[in-house]
Amino acid sequence: xxxxxxxxxxxxxxxxxxxxxxxxxxxxxxxxxxxxxxxxxxxxxxxxxxxxxxxxxxxxxxxxxxxxxxxxxxxxxxxxxxxxxxxxxxxxxxxxxxxxxxxxxxxxxxxxxxxxxxxxxxxxxxxxxxxxxxxxxxxxxxxxxxxxxxxxxxxxxxxxxxxxxxxxxxxxxxxxxxxxxxxxxxxxxxxxxxxxxxxxxxxxxxxxxxxxxxxxxxxxxxxxxx
Length: 226
Known about the structure:
Blueprint: H1 6-12, E1 17-23, H2 29-36, E2 40-47, H3 50-59, E3 65-69, E4 83-90, H4 91-100, E5 108-115, H5 117-127, E6 129-138, E7 142-150, H6 164-170, H7 172-177, H8 180-194, H9 201-215
Parallel strand pairs: 1-2, 1-4, 2-3, 4-5
Antiparallel strand pairs: 5-7, 6-7
Helix pairs in contact: 4-5, 5-6, 8-9
């Protein structure tokens, strides 16, 4: 897929639909890659600012894609898209965008918050979207790629048999898989927070959740002593 870094490649492989909308598409590279790879038939790039709008329009010229100047889901009609991506924003902002026009949110979502993924997970739990996949990508930052599907029929099984608080902060599916890279990320954050003499309530809360997770990890690993 052209012109995509590892983060957006991880997003792209989660997407396959007829009509896909990307909010905050910047240069339109994700939509172009999806169209070129045949993963979508039509794309909609939505930008709130003029310069990124012009960048995306230039990238997507000649392709089966619309580029719209609008504020988030204000640029999408109800039922118009089958899937939606929002990448490179804070989790609180992503949640606000999704909350603003709930009738315009498609059934399949791929979201990549740069911070506070727990805000996105809380939105999904309260809005009838199940978490069906989580990926951790290590690049310039540590990125979580979250995929959700609409399902009002039952509680989200991703959160069954895991600590809800830790799952919201760090990801229930990532915790279940407990891959070495994920464990190393948790341990790095634990050590970083533990070095502070003074902590905010939020950072102390994260430290406590990390300590509980790492102390209960599989017995073959080194835990907090590693």
